[in-house]
Amino acid sequence: MLIAGNWKMNGLTEALKQAEAVADALKAAPAKANCAICPPATLAGHMAAVLGDAVAMGGQNCHADASGAHTGDISAEMWADIGAEYVIVGHSERRESYGETNEQVAAKAAAVIRAGLTPIICIGESLAQRQAGETLDVLGAQLRGSIPAVASTTDIVIAYEPIWAIGSGLTPTLDEIADTHAFLRTVMQDVLGDRAVTTPIQYGGSVKPANASDILALDNVDGALVGGASLKAEDFLGIIRAAV
Ligand code: PEP
Questions:
Q1: How far is the C-alpha of 13 from the C-alpha of 45, rounded, in Å?
Q2: Which of 113, 193, 209, 239 has the smallest set of CB atoms within 10 Å of its CB?
Q3: What is the distance in A from the centroid of ligand 1 to the CA of 68?
Q4: Is the pLDDT of residue 198 over 90?
């Protein structure tokens, strides 16, 4: 079980207090789940120090190259160097805002693996795709296209995030989440073979303390990727404690 917080483009130095409160609480009473916070890059150095061993750190994106003339970009090796253990790749906000394709996401995921870290590979359907009955086709294509070949021999995490559920307060029903995750597991068996069984599939999209227990108890739900509710220690801890 992996509960990961995605701070997105949120958090000035002051916000480190929230991360520190999460780490302190988990040092006092360890979580049943593995936990991570993915801060904006500007906070990464401070964040690694604040989190210590209690909570892992992750990046929110990376370039596929290890280094080079890519102004403004950060490589997976740089994330590793500053103490990250995970890097999110293919978040729908990047697929939408920057036109990231499955191929690019797969290349980034391969880069994360090359750097010795674990990619959290995001997939998810839009509302229009869902309403057109295309959800499973879209997710199947995203999974097959975004998982790099090298993943069959190493750890990866998949995050299923319906785009319409992100930041909206809306979530699929529990049955819909369970059905979708079961479908993803089947596709992953094709792509990853035996590793599919042990590859975590997170659910993401408006996870909060109030709905976390029900979602995390579902078959084939192996954690959560949390946006808004990861910014406040109390809310993020509420979700972490719901993982039993
Ligand atoms: C996300 O963007 O990864 C996310 C799940 O956001 P939220 O929890 O705010 O819906």
A1: 11
A2: 193
A3: 31
A4: yes
